[in-house]
Amino acid sequence: MNPAFFLALLQALLVYAKPLPQASDNGSEFFAPIPGFVPSTSSVVPSVQVTTVPTSSGTVQILPEPSTQLPATQGIIVTQLDPAGIHTGNPLLRTSIPSPTTTLGGGQPTAVPGPKPLGALADNIFQPVSTDPPPGNIPQRADHPVPRLNVLPSQQEPIGTNKFWQNFLLGSQTSGTWTHPYSIAWSKGKGATGSWGMSISHIEDNQKVFGEGNPARYFANPIGVQSIVISALELGGDTILSSERLTAFSAHISLHARAGDRPLIQLPIVQGMGFVTAGCNVVTPILQSGVLFRSIKKASQNPKPGVMKFIIELEDNNKWFLYAWSPSGNNLDFTVVNNELIQATSTFDGVLQFAKDPGNGEALYDAASGAWPVTVDLSGTADGAIGAYTFTFRKEGYTSNPPTLLMYALPHHIASFSQGTRANVKDLQLDTTTKGRATAVVADSWTLSESLPTSMGFGPWDPDQGEKKGLSGDAKRIVHAIAEKEISQDMNAQSNLNSMYYSGKALAKFAQIVYVLNDMLDDKGLAQSGLSKLKQAFAVFIENRQQFPLFYESAWHGLVSSSTYATADAGTDFGNTYYNDHHFHYGYFVYAAAIIGHVDPSWIDPNKAYINALVRDYANPSPLDTFFPQHRNFDWYHGHSFAHGLYETADGRDEESSSEDIMSLLALKLWGSVIGDRNLEARGNLQLAIASRALQNYFLYDSTNANQPSNFIGNKVSGILFENKIDHVTYFGTNIEYIQGIHMIPLIPASGLARTKRFVTEEWNAFFNNGRAEGTAGGWRGILMANLALINPKASWDWFVNGAFDAAGLDGGASQTWYAAMAGALAGV
């Protein structure tokens, strides 16, 4: 994709700033009928010879085989990464770190207060971290470089920046939105149909396109396939798309004939929805298809009173069901115009629902028609080492008591469903783009349970043995000699950088060294001396004195680097100002703060508001906190975070570093534990469990993985996982240590939870054994050897403590101290 194109388009849209249409206040989440509606008829004349055949099950209109055009089923495959504003820099701190000329002396251990008393664990753990304004020393501003395109004034809640519906608000507003298993996109006069309506598509596995090699370098799904487009005669060149009711799980999208007009077509977009539902507000519906229509049949028998049913066959041999309901009871009939166009014979005030049939879905779709989800309420519990979370689907329908919803679950959902939810799983499945097969569940709520990693703390951790932080006397002496040098480095010089990402990594590195000294080596004096320096380095950020201070901006509601405001570079600091990677950037700060608070609880209260603000920016759990959107990065439907911020993207949101995702969640858990916020700690535990399961299904592939293509899992990791494709590459290079290593950094207690021993063993044997890891250049060498500690900690220990160790093999954001201590403790040396 061309970055210059998007910039020009954005500038044009900024100039074209007409008044937005107002949302109607009808008391309904989605659709309200027009009182006294009387349909008007229109004359429709087919432009091709259509055969009408009455049958016992309905009347079929059959089109002739297209003679001059082929079905547009191939779409577009985007094979190159779009670097616009994306984190193209190497994630490793590669500047040379000078050796300290003197070593830091051990201070007198100071008496510190005990840990914070634990707060109460709520019945619903999704309680606000805080509802206070951001710290007063962070300047506030109302502007942001990226406009919120056509968001209606009714949207008062903070708007997410990394969500599945993001493309509706950005750039051309035409890139896809993936609800799984369907995708939808505004046609905006483009594509095979030239329609101004909303395109609906579902891609099957046999349509995936694979890159070169075995395993394939990438696989991608075609975009721009307009299987069915729901539109209206009243829509044309002045059509605009608006959005409102934007939540972490849903959006309400409307099409208007022109700015200032009432919405003509409205769609409630919810992740996992079984139907694509469209409300038609006194319009003449038209159906268009780039794949081309073969036939449409109106069923003679309605699936339920008041609900009409149509069966549409396309030239790709796929069958779709269309259900229609009008509150006024008016009939809906279609006339086939040609292979691309089907038009209603009258205006319609009602709801249309579309669903693709893989061959066994008719009875389930019939039963579920007439109900649609409008959003999702999330709740959760924690009881000891067992956590649970529930999706309650808020729904509407054609009666006051709508049918039970049909929703689609992803593989990681199915694996953790409660017994009650599992009973509602059906054998109806559709392929997804990057998440295996979606399975139908007929239920108005799902409950999922997970085993929580409650034994995990700050120290090295093994999934089978729990926390292991003991070292022998000899091992302590070896690690202490290393730590004494590293803790004496210039912390301020390494952390006060022009990047929140690099700065956070440096602070976390020194926090780990302090932890090792304090908890594993029992040198409280040297730990306190190092902690004093670390607090001073951290204070630069708490006081907002870093090179690019933070702003709190109220357009999108978040804490952003001032770097783009100062430089006009959308990609500076990996796109922080545009909300790229906030969970990575701020997660390192929260992780470092948790260690400081663990070693010295007296530090917590004076600095809690700042750290909590970072937590709230990327992980606000509650609508009661009106300063930040809920769940900016973590996607509770997908089970992992998305890093990609405010950039229109052809293949949807993406995430590169699954391991830094895990780090950001461990940071929540640990910070919650030191401040006594049991709900935050429980959410961190729950998210760690969910994300580990999701990563093992979609990002990290052992040989048993059944969700990703068999000719791709040999790559062992995703590289970059988009909503619509997976590319075994990184934004900063194609070296194998980059691609595999970005899913390793940082090595932390939670690494072994997501990265199973079987997976690590297979990956090591595929890419790094027999001296290949040791021969890797730069800081990636240390990362690979630290990762080895998850399966062969003794070999990792030997490498980090041998006399020939070269610090050039360390990432500037990692320490020999932590790597050696972790490997040694796991090895039991």
Could you describe the 3D structure shown?
The chain has 19 helices and 35 strands. Helix 7 (500-520) packs antiparallel against helix 8. Strands 1-2-15-16-17-20-13-12-11-10 form a 10-stranded antiparallel β-sheet, covered by helices on one side. Strands 4-5-6-9-14-19-18 form a 7-stranded antiparallel β-sheet, with no helix packed on it. The chain is an alpha+beta fold and 829 residues long. Mean pLDDT is 93; it is low at 1-27. A hairpin with a 5-residue loop joins strand 12 and strand 13 (276-283).
Topology (SSEs and partners):
Elements: H1 3-15, E1 51-55, E2 58-62, E3 140-141, E4 177-178, E5 183-186, E6 198-201, E7 209-210, E8 218-220, E9 228-232, E10 240-244, E11 250-256, E12 263-270, E13 276-283, E14 285-288, E15 293-299, E16 307-314, E17 319-325, E18 334-338, E19 341-344, E20 348-357, H2 362-368, E21 371-383, E22 386-397, E23 406-409, H3 411-416, H4 419-422, E24 425-431, E25 437-442, E26 445-451, E27 461-462, E28 466-467, H5 473-486, H6 491-495, H7 500-520, H8 524-542, E29 550-553, E30 558-561, H9 563-567, H10 582-599, H11 604-619, E31 634-635, E32 640-641, E33 654-655, H12 658-675, H13 678-698, E34 720-722, E35 725-727, H14 736-741, H15 751-754, H16 757-767, H17 779-787, H18 793-801, H19 816-827
Helix pairs in contact: 5-7, 5-19, 7-8, 7-10, 10-11, 10-12, 12-13, 17-18, 18-19
